[in-house]
Amino acid sequence: MKTEIRPARLSEAAELSAMMRRTFLAANGHCSTPENVAAFVAQAYTPERQAQEIRDPDTLTLIVEQDGVWAGFAQLRWGTLPPTDVGLQPTVELARIYLDEAFHGRGIAAVLVSHLLAAARLRGSRSVWLTVWQESSQAIRFWRKHGFQIVGRSIFHVGDDPKEDWVMAQVLPEG
């Protein structure tokens, strides 16, 4: 099987938006009321917003394909203000990373994380941070396995429902 990781193209904004909606709902659709989840998805995952993010020089949106089929996506954001718990600067936010369920368990996520960390180093970041829902034990285990440690807390809003998140960070090796 051939895995390819590449930057998203502007012409793919609608397809990316659909994948973002699908993967968010599969992973987190149960996290709040249907109304709050629908409000969040409608605000966060529009083709217009994805086009804007693809054009943003401080956001790297990647698509991962396996044998020519979209398996998932990820985003690094250099333009976000890190939580005060993230000490080592400059830093970058690993804002999104999702795989379609059919691609779970194939090692693709590990390859994608490695690619993201390399991209962060190439752009001069000394650390990477992310937030993860405190109730997502599988995701927390995944990030710990990949060298991230809990450094603080934050709030993530799904609609008008505040969710307790962990802030996790990793110091990147120099050179």
TrEMBL record:
<feature type="domain" description="N-acetyltransferase">
    <location>
        <begin position="3"/>
        <end position="173"/>
    </location>
</feature>
<dbReference type="InterPro" id="IPR050832">
    <property type="entry name" value="Bact_Acetyltransf"/>
</dbReference>
<dbReference type="InterPro" id="IPR000182">
    <property type="entry name" value="GNAT_dom"/>
</dbReference>
<keyword id="KW-0012">Acyltransferase</keyword>
<dbReference type="GO" id="GO:0016747">
    <property type="term" value="F:acyltransferase activity, transferring groups other than amino-acyl groups"/>
</dbReference>
<keyword id="KW-0808">Transferase</keyword>
<protein>
    <submittedName>
        <fullName>GNAT family N-acetyltransferase</fullName>
    </submittedName>
</protein>
<dbReference type="Pfam" id="PF00583">
    <property type="entry name" value="Acetyltransf_1"/>
</dbReference>
<dbReference type="InterPro" id="IPR016181">
    <property type="entry name" value="Acyl_CoA_acyltransferase"/>
</dbReference>
